[in-house]
Amino acid sequence: MTAASGVPGAGRQPALAGQTVVVIGASAGIGLETARQVRDEGGQVILTGRNPDRLQEAARELQPLGAAAFDAADTGRLQQFFQDLPGPLDHVMVTAGSPAYMPLAGMDLGAARRAFDERLAMTLGVALCSRRKVRAGGTMLFMGGTGGRRPGAGRAIVHTLTAALPALTESLALELAPVRVNLIAPGFVDTPLSASLLGDQLEARREELRATLPIRRVVSPADVAALAVHIMRNEALTGATYDIDGGRQLIVG
């Protein structure tokens, strides 16, 4: 055994060498961490995000092939973005969007409609606009969640979307084949978005999860990004939803 062969990963070819990955929602959290891991695995990235300043900071770190600041829910802008990209692309990942919790008693119908549009129409929009650019065997990778699987007060929208996205993924996987379509469904992930939603309750939530999750720690963006890279690598995976919640669904209550 040589000295180099004793090093973990020594001699291994980068899993995504020569591949190009578009990450929509890449300026923070899961999207940014996925872009980092793609680069670590030898891939090139094209980044998008709504916040120009954060996107520029991510671009300085990752040296992407390109970066574009826009709202992916803007269908016209999304279409133009993909039209302008040279092909073929290997993978497109979408992490943009946030969960919508709205009690019926105080619900604004316009806001509810925008929540559905942001998740379902944006998913369809990415599939429609990128379908001719993604190579056979490449993947479109969308983001759902496990937290809305149980119904409850204020969960009408998120519960409905949580049920709809796996069904949409299955249909797209058949219609877009041999391009692969998959869905990642995280539970709580310790991201800047989680921090903004929970505010001063964030640390209490972390402590609760550390005490109760079977993995005894909080799921991080790096955990979700590692799953995303695995799905990109494994060309036998399509039409499926991959849960990553540290075992939260196994806990009653």
Q: What percentage of the residues does DSSP assign to strands (E)?
A: 15-25%
Number of discrete domains: 1
CATH-level-4 superfamily name: NAD(P)-binding Rossmann-like Domain
Overall form: globular
Strand order of the largest sheet: 3-2-1-4-5-6-7
Order of SSEs: EHEHEHEHEHEHHHE
The radius of gyration over CA amounts to: 18 Å
Mean pLDDT: 89
Low-confidence stretches: 1-8
The fold-level CATH name is Rossmann fold
Tally of alpha and pi helices: 8
CATH top level assignment: Alpha Beta
Q: Quick one: biggest sheet?
A: 7 strands, parallel
Beginning-to-end CA distance, first to last residue: 52 Å
User: Total number of β-strand segments?
Assistant: 7
Structure report:
The chain is α/β, with parallel strands linked by helices and 253 residues long. The protein has one domain: Rossmann fold (3-Layer(aba) Sandwich), CATH 3.40.50.720. The chain is built from 8 helices and 7 strands; from the N terminus they run E-H-E-H-E-H-E-H-E-H-E-H-H-H-E. It has a 7-stranded parallel beta sheet, sandwiched between helices. The protein is globular and about 45 Å long.
